[in-house]
Input
Amino acid sequence: MSYAHVPVMLPEVGKYLHPRPGSFFLDCTLGGAGYTIALAKAVGSTGRVLAIDLDATAIKNATQKLKANNLDNVILVQDNFKNLSTIVSENLPAEQKFDGIVMDLGLSSAQLSDPERGFSFQGERPLDMAFGPLSAKSTEEIVNHYSLPDLTKIFREYGEEKEAYRIAKAIVNYRRTKRLKTTTDLVTIIEAVVPPRFYTKIHPATRIFQALRMATNGELDNLTTVLPAALELLKPQGRLVVVSFHSGEDRIVKNFFRTAALEEQLIILTKKPLIPTEAETQVNPRARSAKLRAAIKL
Ligand SMILES: C[S@@+](CC[C@H](N)C(=O)[O-])C[C@H]1O[C@@H](n2cnc3c(N)ncnc32)[C@H](O)[C@@H]1O
Output
């Protein structure tokens, strides 16, 4: 199978996680297994990596890649990382703690380009932006049944879309006569509200799709739930690295780190978030909005 995803800020993630032979790591967002494989190689046969993803495709791809790399020190789990403590207790000996935990939030390039799913506004696809079967909501349900205020809130808060109300209103008007079924239905409505001459650098559907994806998967709630669980699961001196792509996510990480630092539970290693080098964004434009924050447990 081909699962295309270029890992973002891999050298920086490696630098902050600092994996050593025999150590234990947790990758909360397996994706294309870029981080997981690098970690598995670094910790060697005496170490372990536990890697989680909601998406069955990511698990299948990683199973093949690990085999091809002769790596048998990785445990793969298909679940939502918000269930972190349970996942760890079900898959590792009681009281297992980690030398490092990493999260690389959002979606992978493979998910974005999957024609069976509706993450991209290019081409006609089903209105399905769920990372996996355990995602919070159905995208089709959200666009066809959420109230005008709720849709507006999602577009404004997750998409930072200025035309949130007008786009939400157009969706509500459309569904009075017809159900929205595909991404094309949605894009057509958005384009009617924000015509091409008003486009900024990005197509307005970009922000609406991002907002719907975040609502479908409950992404900010998942992050808020997983951070304290991750801190709890770190060994003293263990490292926590989070790569985010959305200002709301970065705010949650920043505030969590600040509070934990004030409570003397961790030391922040990145005063300001690290961003990718220009060289990286040139070869991988997807890395553009990445922000990396790292901390070490006291
Ligand atoms: C940006 S990709 C990770 C890429 C990975 N670091 C690599 O090097 O290939 C994010 C992955 O996290 C998964 N994901 C997002 N939210 C999740 C959640 N709450 N629980 C489990 N997996 C999640 C997505 O399905 C996606 O595969």
About this structure: The first helix runs from residue 10 to 17. The pocket of S-adenosylmethionine is lined by residues 5, 7, 29, 31-35, 52-55, 58, 80-82, 104, 106-108, 131, 222 (CB under 6 Å). The first strand starts at residue 24 and ends at 27. Strands lie at 24-27, 48-53, 74-78, 98-104, 234-244, 266-268, 291-297.
